[in-house]
What does this fold into?
Amino acid sequence: MQMEYLVDDVAVATNLQILARVYISIATFWTYDYACSVQEEWTFLHRSRSTKIKVLFIITRHVPFSVITMGLCLKLTTNESLDECRMLLNIYSVFSQISITFSEFFFVLRTCALWNNSRIILATMLFILCAGVAISIGIRSTDIASLQVTASAIPGIPGCYSSSPSVQFVSYILLFVCQLVLVSLTLIRVIQSWRSAKGHLRAVLEKHNMLYYACALFLSAMSVLMPMLFSNSPYYSIVKDLQIFILAILATRMHLHLWHIDRHIHGSDALVYISMTDVSPEDITV
It folds into this structure.
């Protein structure tokens, strides 16, 4: 006998199928990017000295694999209960928070380097980052039981998703504020360098890694605007997932770019000690 389902049940099932396909595409994109850059990253890990920044690079580059694993479990497996789904969502959120925080830390270090390792800027940015992490942990710990989870009522449709994006909305606002401050500080340095060097503005923007900052700011803005424009939309998770993976790619690519510049300055045959503060704009001529 053919069963009839409510319109809402069909809509939830359709959303789950779309989310599963999109997440598989994101996971494929991340794996492809990693395969394309693995040789360059291995060269960096082999030739650079062991530093805290190197450890930070390794964590930032590989934590998203844990995010992918948890995300695939959420989108492609059938959970026995909503409590199990809620537990997977919380684990997924923890890995996501770790990935975003470590990625953002690269931009903080780079901005501090542009400002001659200003401790005030470093302390301010770290305060914003830590506040975002603390708020996210606090909200997650108090709302674990009340987290709204949506799963399909139609048999054979796997997956689930969180239908309450406001749980982490405050932490994403702080992340956007942090990224906006970083972009503003970098733009100030761009204007100062452009006026003093009297060079091409495009070259100055490239020298200060503004493309990386602009992409990160755009992703942060989308994470804030999406829940405001589309309340309780399941597709909000797509924006968050893209932010996690692309931010990690931007941070590690920016660091590899600076490492190659530093290696060129100090000689390609040397074992290079690389830090985000080693390469300042003054080291590169426009």
User: Anything to note?
Assistant: Residues 70 and 91 are 8 Å apart (CA to CA). The helical segments are 7-47, 52-76, 82-114, 119-142, 169-197, 201-207, 210-229, 236-266. The beta strands are 149-151, 160-162. The longest strand covers residues 149-151.
